[in-house]
Amino acid sequence: xxxxxxxxxxxxxxxxxxxxxxxxxxxxxxxxxxxxxxxxxxxxxxxxxxxxxxxxxxxxxxxxxxxxxxxxxxxxxxxxxxxxxxxxxxxxxxxxxxxxxxxxxxxxxxxxxxxxxxxxxxxxxxxxxxxxxxx
Length: 135
Prior knowledge:
alpha+beta
């Protein structure tokens, strides 16, 4: 739930939902229009990727993405900087027919540039077992 229901918060939440939809459908063209050219992804294993490598990684996810969802989503606006936090859960059907699930706690940093919001940094950490989920 956002901290304040303002136009900026609604725009940040819309950006986050668009990113999640693009990841689930592996629409790297749509993602390219949402993440800044200087975007950085920091993964739970310490990996740091730029925009091109992040997009290539999304396209290369093995199997079929069954779902990508966010929980406990919060948005905060600090001038031209926006911060989104939450839990992302994903389910994948692998090529051998088995399913795998993943959960990560994330912080996404956005910046308003020339009148629109861009995702500039995504930081992901493993979600601790038993972490709360949305009601």
